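Reminder to self: tokens first, then the designed residues, so the page reads top to bottom the way the pipeline ran.
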């Protein structure tokens, strides 16, 4: 005895008619495509659509925030790698020194909610160079000023040497050479 399922609905599929092959049924998907499938596949739920449902599900899983490849997302990925990937050359300067990323920021959407989009020409900066990547310790700063907040930056009374050179109208390279090559004290190098 053959069961007629014409006119019945199974998930996104509406059964139009039996196909010329007796074990197949012709169905129209909600998206408009037509497919052939077996009664077993329809009843078991193995076939729920023409394939569009699977595509939509994969798309929603893979496209969580839509910012993959943007500058902000790349900065976030690099931050994660510097602190968590022991194989990275830069790991020794970050994760290897104990610099961590707050738990919340291991998810990009949380990082983006706290920091917003990186402005053009800017980069992420930790206010306290030995501190972790956290909302209270990070901000976006112009990339050309980021180099002033490094562990090896020469500081006088907490102010980076490059900033002091700018204030006094001195060439940074000259003052740096006086300190590093000639052995002058930073204050002496800035006065002369």
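Designed residues (192 positions):
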């Amino acid at each position: 005895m053959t069961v007629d399922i014409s006119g019945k609905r199974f998930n996104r599929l509406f059964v139009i008619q039996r196909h010329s092959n007796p074990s197949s049924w012709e169905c129209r998907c909600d998206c408009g495509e037509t497919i052939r499938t077996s009664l077993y596949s329809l009843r078991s739920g193995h076939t729920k659509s023409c394939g569009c449902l699977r595509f939509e599900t994969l798309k929603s899983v893979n496209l969580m925030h839509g910012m993959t490849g943007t500058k902000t997302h790349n900065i976030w990925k690099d931050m994660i790698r510097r602190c968590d990937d022991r194989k990275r050359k830069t790991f020794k300067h970050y994760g290897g020194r104990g610099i961590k990323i707050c738990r919340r920021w291991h998810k990009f959407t949380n990082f983006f909610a706290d920091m917003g989009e990186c402005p053009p020409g800017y980069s992420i900066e930790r206010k306290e160079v030995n501190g972790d990547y956290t909302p209270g310790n990070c901000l976006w700063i112009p990339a050309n000023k980021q180099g002033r907040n490094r562990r090896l930056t020469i500081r006088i009374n907490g102010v980076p040497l490059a900033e002091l050179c700018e204030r006094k109208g001195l060439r940074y390279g000259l003052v740096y050479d006086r300190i590093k090559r000639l052995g002058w004290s930073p204050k002496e190098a800035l006065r002369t």
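DSSP finds eight helices and eight strands in the chain.
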